Inverse folding.
């Protein structure tokens, strides 16, 4: 699967910014006659179980409003959304401890990290840090890794391990 910012016709259907390759030919994702793909940039993909989550800087996916995150389930060929946790774009997704995690931009264009289980959480709190600029995230089965610039009690770091508290 490739994603980004492109528009192509595949098998007579317009696939905006996402397509899959089966080893022989390119295909759009989905089984309906709706326009496939996003109306803007796709920054990140994350597989969770039988779902492919897509996030970036878009508002509509496969012709339906989803905000800047959507998912595709191959078993039913359908797209869906889980609500959008940020005003701005989502730059990264991860998965930890049965939760989807998103790194995105708030209304002040500042990075925030939020988790999704049955709904989106509040932003992970970095109040005890004098500097906390998250630029990337990665999930493991038990914890989240946050990359960026962090300063706490005079100690600097470019990597934090998050297990529900700092």
């Amino acid at each position: 699967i490739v994603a980004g910012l492109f528009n192509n016709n595949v098998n007579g259907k317009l696939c905006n910014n996402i397509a899959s390759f089966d080893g022989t030919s390119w295909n759009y994702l989905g089984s309906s006659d709706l326009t496939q793909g996003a109306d803007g940039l796709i920054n990140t993909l994350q597989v969770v179980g039988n779902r492919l989550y897509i996030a970036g800087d878009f508002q509509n996916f496969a012709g339906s409003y989803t905000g800047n995150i959507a998912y595709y389930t191959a078993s039913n060929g359908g797209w869906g959304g889980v609500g959008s946790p940020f005003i701005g774009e989502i730059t990264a997704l991860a998965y930890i401890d049965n939760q989807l995690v998103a790194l995105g931009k708030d209304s002040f264009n500042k990075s925030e990290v939020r988790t999704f289980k049955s709904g989106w959480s509040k932003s992970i709190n970095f109040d005890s840090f004098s500097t906390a600029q998250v630029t990337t995230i990665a999930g493991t089965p038990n914890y989240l890794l946050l990359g960026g610039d962090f300063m706490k009690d005079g100690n600097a770091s470019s990597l934090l391990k998050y297990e529900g508290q700092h």
Remarks:
- The chain has a mean pLDDT of 87.
- The first strand starts at residue 2 and ends at 10.
- Residues 118 and 128 are 27 Å apart (CA to CA).
- The two ends are 35 Å apart (CA to CA).
